[in-house]
Amino acid sequence: MYFIAIALFFLVGGIFALLVRFELIAPGKTLVDAGTYNKFMTLHGAIMVFMVIIPGIPAFLGNFFLPIMVGAKDVAFPRLNLTSWYVFMLGAILAVLSLTMGGVDTGWTFYTPYSIRTSGGVVIMVVGAFVMGMSSILTGLNFIVTVHKLRAPGMTMMRIPLFVWALYSTAIIQMLATPVLGITLLLLIAERVLGVGIFDPKLGGDPVLFQIGR
Q1: DSSP secondary-structure letter at 98?
Q2: Which of 32, 62, 105, 156 is in the most buried spot, having the most CB atoms within 10 Å?
C-alpha cells in the first residue's frame, strides 16, 4: 500500500516539477503567473519531501525487507503499521487539499515570516505535514521494537545487516527529531490561527526560532 501511495504522489509531484520547468523555458510568463509558479514549486517540494522521500525508504523498503533480514515473520505491531499508513494518507490528503484553499506559495519549508503573512491554505498544509510526521513516529517505533524483540535466535545487534542498521538509526532519528518538528508546526498553526507572538516580529516574536525548530 505504501508503494502504491508513494508512487502516486511521486507522479503528482513530477507533474508539478514539469510545470515548473516548462514555465522556465523562456523569460517572462510562459504558462502561469508568478504567484501560481510559487504555488507549483511549493506543492512539488512538499509532495516530494513529505510524501515521497521521507516515507520512501523506511515505510516502503523497510516494511518489506526489515522483517526478512532479522528473521521475523512481520513487524512487531502489524496493526500499528496499518494505522501509520492510514495516518500518512490522511496527512497527505490534507496537504493536497490546500489546492482548494488557494494553494501555498511559501515553499515546502514554510519559513517564517512568509508562512505567517501569506494568504492561502498554509494552515491545512502544515496540519497535513504534522499528521504525516505522526505516521513517521509510529513507523519508527515499530521498527525499533522489531529489531530489539523479533531478531532470529543467535542474531546479535552486531550481526544484523547494514541496511537494518540504517533503518534502525533512521527510526531513532524519527522518534527524536520528528516531535521537535511537530511542535514547531503546531506553534506555526497557533501563530496563524490565534495570532500569538512566537515567530512574527510585529508581535514580539523571532523568525529564527522557526529555523531552529526546523
Answers
A1: G
A2: 62
DSSP string covering 25-58, please? SSSS-SSS-HHHHHHHHHHHHHIIIIIIIHHIII
pLDDT (tens digit, 9 = 90+) per residue, 98-151?
Answer: 888 878 888 888 888 778 877 778 899 999 999 999 999 999 999 999 999 999
How far is 23 from 30, CA to CA, in rounded Å? 5
Residues with Cβ within 8 Å of 188's Cβ and at least 6 positions away in sequence, in order, are: 110, 112, 115, 116, 126, 199, 210
Distance CA 137, CA 73 (A): 22
Q: What does the pLDDT look like over 44-99, one tens digit per residue?
A: 999 999 999 989 888 888 999 999 999 999 999 999 999 999 999 999 999 988 88
Can you tell me the distance from the alpha carbon of 65 to that of 69, in angstroms, rounded to the nearest whole number?
Answer: 6
85 within 8 A of 5, measured Cβ to Cβ: yes
Distance separating the N- and C-terminal Cα atoms of the chain: 29
Rounded-to-integer distance, Cα 171 and Cα 194, Å: 33
**Burial (Cβ within 10 Å: 0-12, 13-18, ≥19) of residue 112:** buried
| Rounded CA separation 121/92 (Å) | 14
Given a contact cutoff of 8 angstroms between Cβ atoms, the answer to whether 139 and 62 are in contact is: yes
Cell (9 digits) for 110: 514554510
**Domain boundaries, given as residue ranges, for the chain:** 57-213
